[in-house]
Amino acid sequence: MFHVLLALAGDDLHGYAILKEVELRTGGKVKLSTGTLYGIIKRLLADGLIVERRARPTDANDDERRRYYRLTPQGREVAAAEAERMDEVLSIARARNLLRKPRPA
Amino acid sequence: MDATDSRATRLYRALLKLLPFDFRGDFGPEMETVFHEQRKEAARRGGIAGVLRLWWETIVGIFKTAPGEHAAMFAQDAGFALRMMRKNPGYTLAAVLTLGLGIGANSAIFSVVNAVLLKPLPYEHGDRLVVMRQRMGALNQGFSPSDTNDYRTQSRSLDGLVEYHNMNFILLGRSEPERVETGVVSWNYFDVFGVKPLFGRNFRPEDEQHGAPAVLMLSYEYWIKSFGGDPTVVNKTFTMNDKIHTVIGVLPPVPQYPDENDVYMPTTACPFRSDPATIANRRARMVQVFGRMKADTAVSQAQADLSGVAANLQKAYPKDYPEGNNYSVKAEALEEALTHNARPTMLVLLAAAGFVLLIACANVANLNLSRMVRRERELAVRAALGAGRVRMFRQLLTESFLLAVIGGGLGLVFSWGALNLLISFAARFTPRAREIHMDSTVLLFTLAVAVLTSILSGTAPALAARDTVVDGLKEGGAQSTIGVGRRRMRSALIVAQVAVSFLLLIGAGLMLRSFMKLQHVDPGFQPENVLTMEIALDFVKYDTNDKQRAFFETLLEKTQAQSGVQSAAASMMIPFTSGMTMTGDFQIEGQAAEPGQAMPKADFRIVSPTYFEALHIPILNGRGFLQSDRPGHPDVAVVNRTAARHIWGAKDPAGSRFSTDGGRTWTQVVGVVGDIKQYGLDKDVVDEIYVPMAQNPMGQASLVIKTAVEPMSIARGVIELLHGVDPNQPAARVRSLEQVRAESVAAPRLTSNLLSIFALLALTIAATGIGGVMALAVGQRRHEIGVRMAIGARPVEILRMVLSQGMGLALVGIVLGLLGAFALTRLLQGLLFEVGPTDPLTFVGVAAVLSAATLLACYVPARRASRVDPIIALRVE
């Protein structure tokens, strides 16, 4: 779920783009399928963390048929809170020398 | 490329069907597009392997998401349903109660059917156990020890053969001497049955040796009743009769067949059975035999094998298996023997409970229909706006399901509470009654019934509402009327309710009539004001004929003198029981039996002289017994009328002589008495020959005491007299003959009571349902009625119009019910006594009752219709 929010934090995306973005960001480790993705999208919509956007974007590549999803302010807050939480956890782990190797820059 | 594409799309669409309808509506097309793109990329990057991997991941993804989505949807629907139920408490209560009763009745009867008919016997290898019977013609005989031995050694289809018979011991050392019902069995009896003791051990071969220490096993019920379930009872000792017996084990609760025993002992415990004379006498047929077939043997194979042994025995000992007697041996599966009494009744009751549930479902369905009618406009508008009719109907189904589940829970509680009643009811038909439990099978069945109920009561209105949109939007104004589809469905439901009620009422009516006929059967004697009790003499103390005779004569003399006693008598057997039957064949003086022809046979009854007087059995010819008929005087006998006609024919039997020992001694018939229904009111009279107790003493007899007062009131006094004669002699089965008679017809009485309850329940549900529907219909047609009255219709015409519409439906229902009854009641044949399955009186009666009930149900709303004020009705526009 967080992966989807994270993906939408950068830009409004449509379904397929979200799938590709998540796959890219996690280096192929998290591959969502259509079933799981839209289950997540439905819940995010219901919780008001994302909204649908029908207006055509300015980018000529985008398809007018597609539905774009955009993070709402609440969604952005939730994503931020989750990111901060993870950051905190990471600092503690780093401090205790739990991480095996330094992350590539 | 295109062909593959479209195939893939179709496949994906089919896969999407796993997801809820709404979800598909919201995201389906988008998901298809995304998947299409995924496929293109997967093909580009990974070829066939890539595409297949994508398919796999997608399928897994759908399977992971689908359950959650369905559950979320259900939760939402359920929440909405619960809110609706809280807002309409009246409807909710009515529906839950109705369904609860219907589901509960089915659950209760099913728990009986499950335990008695469906579950396998609680014995290891229970399906291999058989009951063996020896028959001479149509009569069942026991086996002699010699018979048993031969069958054991000569049969090839059995890997275990054990014997059983029943006797009484007397337990001393308590406040009163107690009779102990004892099963006397082969040492490996429980091993063959596959029963392991709860505590202690089974018998071993050493226990059945002569001179072995006396041991016994306690039955579960006796262990609970007399020893309070004390687990330390093993190795305790008790004095019974003259011997000290050690308890070696306690049995688990298993069905006891053919008798309920308190304890079990090996065969060496019974002096008669162990007597060398008995063992040597091939005709001393006193035990019953059970066998266990070898694995993978069918009963038919065992039967063939045993019949072969029977033929060998007949050839080897022709005198003991006389040709004319039509000797045969039968093997019956034990499971069959334990359950065949119960099967017809229980299945009829299950069907009846099913009918009650159908009627309840119809009621709730009609209620649902009416509720939908009220929301007709709202539903139509929503449907027109595309708000998902599927969603609405799913909502309705969820409501029905929740109602059914709550009702089912209520029903389960009800049948759990009635469990003890159920067990005591079923116990009259089968010893497996004790196995009746609320187990997981019953719970699953109840759940299944609840689901079925919800489907039946929820979908009917949903299906009928196909024309919602058009009709609902057509009506101008707030007054909504019922669509054609719904009206038809409503009428169909009413017709169905009436028809099924008819079936139930017919069933109950036939059973009631049958039972009443049974009640009115003349037993041939007067059972009123007769006290009975069984006295089994201590066979160690009273080991000679003289002692036995003296005991009973003394006791009878003392009892006769007791106040409140009109006649004190004794008999080997009391009417309405069959325990101590003695069938014997005999030859009539001057009528030698031809070789190959069967000898005349009759049931012999040993009675005291006052027996006929005590029961008011008329003496038709000659005389009864006198005090002078005793040892030292000629042996006499009295025959019943059926024996006289059947065996002596036109000749008067008085004066004729017969012999039961091949001509060594002769007995003279001195009289003929009236027939009595010895074995039961519904059983035929048999040939009976009575002989006097003084000349044929017995170690066990029942007192038969005609009283001037309520019989049980002097019971205590008689028992004290008994203890005055012998303080260590117990009396058992102390009851009035009326009680015995009531017991003997308890099964049909309870069955017809239960069926009547079901039928009345069904009638009430149906009548209230019809009344409610009629009232609603009238309410909806108020406008129309107002118009009619305004143009001149009189109230009585409106009344007649509404009534005739309601009764028209009822009539169709009655006719359908009639046809159904003609077809189905022959299934009741086995349960009916002297009543045909198409008994016209019952059919007419039921039709009348049902017509009256439906008339009453329709009358109230019809009257209200006729009272409509046209001005008010027309005002609402």
What can you tell me about this protein's structure?
The complex is a heterodimer of chains A (105) and B (877). Chain A has a single domain (2-95), classed as Winged helix-like DNA-binding domain superfamily/Winged helix DNA-binding domain (Arc Repressor Mutant, subunit A), CATH 1.10.10. Chain A has four helices and three strands, in the order αβααββα. Chain A has helices spanning 2-10, 15-25, 34-47, 73-95, and strands at 13-14, 50-53, 68-71. Chain A has a three-stranded antiparallel β-sheet with strand order 1-3-2. In chain A, α1 (2-10) packs across α2 and α1 crosses α4 (73-95). Chain A is globular. With 877 residues, chain B is α+β, with helices and mostly antiparallel strands. The A-B interface holds A 15-16, 19, 31-39, 41-42, 65-67 and B 19, 23, 26-27, 30-31, 33-35, 37-38, 57-58, 60-66, 68-69.
Write the layout of secondary structure elements.
The complex is a heterodimer of chains A (105) and B (877).
Chain A: H1 2-10, E1 13-14, H2 15-25, H3 34-47, E2 50-53, E3 68-71, H4 73-95
Antiparallel strand pairs in A: 1-3, 2-3
Helix pairs in contact in A: 1-2, 1-4
Chain B: H1 2-16, H2 21-87, H3 89-118, E1 129-136, E2 139-141, H4 145-154, E3 158-171, E4 178-185, H5 189-193, E5 199-200, E6 215-218, H6 220-227, E7 237-240, E8 243-250, E9 263-266, H7 271-274, H8 276-280, E10 288-293, H9 299-316, E11 327-333, H10 334-339, H11 342-374, H12 376-384, H13 389-417, H14 419-426, H15 440-464, H16 468-474, H17 484-519, E12 530-536, H18 545-561, E13 565-571, E14 583-585, E15 587-588, E16 601-607, H19 611-615, E17 619-622, E18 636-640, H20 641-648, E19 657-659, E20 667-673, E21 688-692, E22 700-707, H21 715-725, E23 732-736, H22 737-744, H23 746-780, H24 782-790, H25 795-824, H26 840-866, H27 870-875
Parallel strand pairs in B: 4-9, 6-8, 16-21, 18-20
Antiparallel strand pairs in B: 1-2, 1-10, 1-11, 3-4, 3-10, 5-8, 6-9, 7-8, 12-22, 12-23, 13-22, 14-16, 15-19, 17-20, 18-21, 19-20
